[in-house]
Fold this protein.
Amino acid sequence: MKEQELYTILKKVQEPKGYFFNKEQDRVDDLLKALLVNKERYGYMSCPCRLASGDRKLDQDIICPCLYRAQDVEEFGSCYCNLYVSKEWNESEGSHPYVPERRPQTRLPY
């Protein structure tokens, strides 16, 4: 699968739920490429902005879209990676707030 195919599929599924791709297309392309690399590497699309363990059960919370996305987008307008954002986030100008890591330390693979 190529990034453009993944983009089309995810856009169709996620936009009706209120999750939009970041308007910065280069950022989106890089993240989609990384998701596909992780799928090839681990067999699942783990979050490209977090360190995966390679154990699907341990990484269940960071399989994209991650468990933390809804809360991040609700609170900050964007997920941790800035892949998924709210419509308002995309329409706003200037800088956006930093999205802190929500994944508990006990879930980290190191």
Remarks:
- The chain has a mean pLDDT of 94.
- Residues 75 and 104 are 18 Å apart (CA to CA).
- Strands lie at 20-21, 84-85.
- The chain is about 45% helix and 5% strand.
